[in-house]
Design a protein that fits this description.
By secondary structure, the chain is of the alpha/beta class. It contains 15 helices and ten strands. An eight-stranded parallel beta barrel has the order 1-2-3-4-5-6-9-10, surrounded by eight helices. Helix 2 links the parallel strand 1 and strand 2.
C-alpha cells in the first residue's frame, strides 16, 4: 500500500488542488471530532504527536508512541472510524526535549525516539534537528551542515526501524519525511515580533545541504521519501497577535517549488488563519497545514460559553463551575503558562484564559478538569437550552440548531466549536 500522503501529493502534480491538515492535538474531544468529520466525508485524517507530548520517557502525556497509537485507536473504535484511514505522524522528532544535554546523549535519545515512532506504525515523520544542543557554541548560529548531519543520522535509524517493522508486517507502509531548519516554536511564538519569510536562497541552501550530507551517508534514496520542507511563509500567532498569510510577500518563496516538483512546504502555526488564507497557502504549495492550539482554543470557547449558560439556568449549588476550577488549577500549577505571559496581574489573568497561545490546553487532561467538564455536560442532560440563549452565547451553533443541522445537547454544542475550526481546513485542502 502506498503512503496515503503520497496520493495527495500526486494529485498536485496533475494540477489538482490538494493538501492535508495535520491535527496536532492529544485532546480526546478534539481527536473525536476530527475522526467524526473525516468519517462524514470518507477521508483520511492525519493526527500528530510531538516529541514533547510523546516519547520513550512518556512526555507530558505520559505516553510512548505505541501508547499514543492505541489511545487514538480507542477513540476511533468509540466513533466507529476505520483505523486504516488514520495517518499517524510524529512532529518535531529529534533532540528538542533534550536540547540542554550534550550532543552524544541528546542524539542517543533522539535515535531511540524516532525508532519507537516508526516501529509503532507512524508513517509521517518530521525530523527536527534545528535546535542548539548543550555542547553547541551558543554564540554562533547552528550550521546547516550540522542540522543536516543530525537529520541524516535520524533518517538512517528510521530506515532501519522500517526494515525491522517490515519483517513483522509485510504490509507496513513506508513513512514519508519532512525536513527543514526554519522550524517555528511549537505552540506559537512567545514574543510579539515581525516575521521574516524564508528566503529562496535559504530554502535552496537547506535542500542542497541535506542532499549533500545524505549522499555522504549513502542515503541518496531518501529523496523518494522526503516529501516536504518546513519553511516560514509568514504565518504565526502569539498570545495576543496574529500574522496572516500574504501570498504576494511569500511569492518569491512559493515560486521556488516549480523547480522541485516532488516537494511541498509544510506550514506550522497556521492556527487562526482565515479559511480563504489557508486555501491560498495550499494553492501556493503549503500543502501540509499544521493546526493545534486553535482546536483546543475552540474547545475552550465552547466550554466557557456553556458555563455562561450554566450560570443562568443551573442553581448555584449544582453548577460545575468549569471556568473557576480551570483557573484555580492553572494558578496552583503554573509551569505550563508562567513563561508565556507577561504584564500586570490583571493582564495575565485575562491571558491565561483567553490568549491565542491557549496554554489552557495543557490542563484539559487533568482528572479534576475532566470531571468538571463532564459535570458541565451532565448538568444539561434534562434541560433544553432555549434558542434565544443559544443566540446570545453560541450564535454559530444557534444557526445550526435552528436549521436542524446540529443537536442541541451540551456535548454536541461544544464539539461543534472544534468542528468549525476543522471545516476551515477542509475548505482549504479540498478540490
Amino acid at each position: 500500500m502506498d503512503n496515503p500522503i503520497l496520493l495527495i501529493l500526486n494529485k498536485r502534480k496533475k494540477g489538482i488542488h490538494s493538501g492535508i491538515p495535520s491535527f496536532c492535538s492529544s485532546n480526546k474531544l478534539v481527536i473525536e471530532v476530527a475522526l467524526e468529520q473525516a468519517k462524514r466525508n470518507n477521508e483520511y485524517v492525519l493526527i500528530e504527536a510531538t516529541s514533547n507530548q510523546v516519547n520513550q520517557f512518556g512526555g507530558y502525556m505520559n505516553m510512548n508512541p505505541k501508547d499514543f497509537k492505541e489511545y487514538v485507536y480507542r477513540i476511533a473504535d468509540k466513533v466507529k472510524f476505520d483505523k486504516e484511514k488514520i495517518i499517524l505522524g510524529g512532529d518535531h522528532l529529534g533532540p528538542q526535549p533534550w536540547q540542554d544535554l550534550d550532543e552524544n546523549i541528546a542524539m542517543e535519545y533522539s535515535r531511540e525516539l524516532v525508532k519507537q515512532f516508526v516501529l509503532a506504525g507512524f508513517i509521517k515523520i518530521h525530523l527536527d534537528t534545528s535546535m542548539r544542543l548543550g555542547s553547541d557554541d551558543k554564540s554562533k548560529p547552528l550550521l546547516d551542515e550540522t542540522i543536516a548531519r543530525r537529520g541524516a543520522e535520524l533518517y538512517a535509524v528510521c530506515e532501519d526501524a522500517y526494515k525491522e517493522l517490515k519483517k513483522e508486517n509485510k504490509d507496513a507502509v513506508h513513512p514519508v519525511f519532512v525536513i527543514g531548519s526554519e522550524v517555528p516554536i511549537p505552540g506559537g511564538t512567545q514574543k510579539e515580533e515581525t516575521l521574516s519569510i524564508t528566503t529562496p536562497n535559504d530554502f535552496k541552501n537547506t535542500l542542497e545541504t541535506y542532499k549533500e550530507v545524505f549522499l555522504q551517508y549513502g542515503l541518496d534514496d531518501a529523496w523518494n521519501h522526503i516529501i516536504a520542507v518546513v519553511v516560514q511563509p509568514g504565518v504565526e500567532f502569539g498570545s495576543s497577535n496574529l500574522h496572516f498569510y500574504n501570498r504576494e510577500e511569500a511569492k518569491d518563496l512559493t515560486q521556488c517549488l516549480t523547480h522541485y516538483p516532488n516537494i511541498v512546504f509544510e506550514g506550522h502555526s497556521t492556527d487562526f488563519q482565515p479559511n480563504y488564507k489557508l486555501r491560498e497557502m495550499v494553492k501556493d504549495g503549503v500543502a501540509i497545514l499544521k493546526v493545534g492550539p486553535a482546536l483546543t482554543f475552540g474547545l475552550r470557547e465552547g466550554l466557557f460559553s456553556l458555563s455562561m449558560i450554566e450560570k443562568e439556568l443551573i442553581p448555584n449549588e449544582k453548577r460545575a463551575n468549569f471556568i473557576e476550577i480551570l483557573e484555580n488549577y492553572m494558578d496552583s500549577n503554573p509551569k505550563y503558562w508562567e513563561k508565556y505571559y507577561t504584564g500586570n496581574k490583571e493582564q495575565i489573568k485575562i491571558l491565561k484564559k483567553y490568549s491565542f497561545s491557549d496554554r489552557c490546553r495543557y490542563y484539559f487532561s487533568n482528572l479534576e478538569i475532566e470531571k468538571a467538564q463532564e459535570k458541565l455536560f451532565r448538568n444539561f442532560d434534562n434541560i433544553e437550552i432555549p434558542l434565544y440563549m443559544l443566540h446570545q452565547y453560541m450564535p454559530i451553533q444557534y444557526t445550526k440548531v435552528r436549521d436542524g443541522l446540529l443537536k442541541s445537547d451540551a456535548k454536541s454544542l461544544v464539539k461543534d466549536y472544534i468542528a468549525t475550526v476543522i471545516e476551515d481546513y477542509n475548505y482549504a485542502v479540498k478540490n
